[in-house]
Amino acid sequence: MAVYKRGKVWWYKFTWNGEKIRESTKHANKRIAEQIEAAHKTSLAKGEVNIRERVKVPTLREFSTEFEKAIETQCAEKPRTVEFYVSRVRLLLASELADRTLDEIDEGAIEKYRQTRAATLSRRKKTLSAGSVNRELATLRRLLRLAYEWKVINRVPRIKLLRGEKNRESTLPHDREAAYLAALPGPLTDVATLLLDTGLRLGEALSLDWAQVRLEPAEGARYGYLTVLSGKAKSSKSRNVPLSARVVSVLRQWEPRRNGLVFHRADGKPLQASLLGQQQSRVRAALKFPTDFVLHSLRHTFGTRLGEAGADAFTIMRLMGHSTVTVSQRYVHPSPEAVELAFGRLMALNLQKVGTNMGTVKQSEPMEIQQHL
Predict the structure, then answer these.
(1) Considering 165, 222, 316, 366, which has the largest number of Cβ atoms within 10 A of its Cβ?
(2) Which residues of the chain have pLDDT under 50?
């Protein structure tokens, strides 16, 4: 050890890789000074072989604040998404995972959480649905992935979702459409008509600005259109959606304002999605529609009708702004007639290209071909 005293304080000096190191320990105790010198040398040695001091891993509760800040920044234009994640984080913090460090939240801890939540009763005294539990697990997964990206943890545990989650498959039957739209109050009628004929998400409709709307068809086109500038996925953004005649009629009723948001309250402020959802719930109950028939079901109705009209999955994907064609494929259900029509077109094309010999291939041809192989 090379410690020496200057006044009442011990210093140390040594040479490391040709560099002279000299620092004050700021202590009057020689033994402590020697320990400080040794610690400095150890730190230098670890750095030389790329060993880093282990950083304390935060608990879920401690990291949740950073996660919420990140979500608020990443989803600044989507307040409902921010609200969604914040509410799910609150549920996670009410569990035993809250005070575990992030690296202690492994597959075993997650499985225990899954089982506990699956057996938990809701306010209606029913066990939580698979969908509700899965939204909590998805939030935990996103939080842990963020921690991994920030190098807070060195792995993300595998998170299995519960099976049996029900998708909201309700659609609006054609024969009940008029009664449904007539029962909706105020602006919701117009918003619902837009959702039904364009397949927009509710958030996309409520953020629609007049600068995104073109009521008159462009040159060579048959329909006016609107341009979606923001959406749930990258593929949702900057997509053009044609406007039906009745949507054009609806928009013309709002046209005198012709600046800012298309749909708004009487005082010019944005319509609230939560209020529209409550109004929808009351109409649904009055008309005795299925409980899973929500405003988003109108978007599902649009996709289903596109599929029934013969649209292919890629067209549906483009109009609805799906992230992958796999999502769009669920709307495509070819009827036997559509299959035969497609096959008939194939035969007609083959006949045109190959000629009339298609149906009169000689039996000896396969043998002749074989002899040449």
Answers:
(1) 316
(2) 49, 51-53, 235, 361-373
| Pair 105, 93: CB distance under 8 Å | no
Q: Are the CB atoms for 226 and 169 separated by under 8 Å?
A: no
Amino acid at 98: A
Same domain? For 179 and 216 the reply is: yes
Residue 146 contacts residue 70 (beta carbons within 8 Å): yes
| DSSP-derived secondary structure letter, 207 | T
- Total structural domains in the chain? 3
Give this prediction's pTM: 0.61
Residue where one domain finishes, among candidates 309, 329, 349: 329
Query: Which amino acid makes up residue 331?
Result: Y
End-to-end CA distance of the chain: 87
CB neighbour burial string for 2-23, b if at least 16 within 10 angstroms, e if fewer: ebeeeeeebbbebeeeeeeeee
Q: Are strands 9-16 and 19-24 parallel, antiparallel or unpaired?
A: antiparallel
Give the pLDDT of residue 232: 56
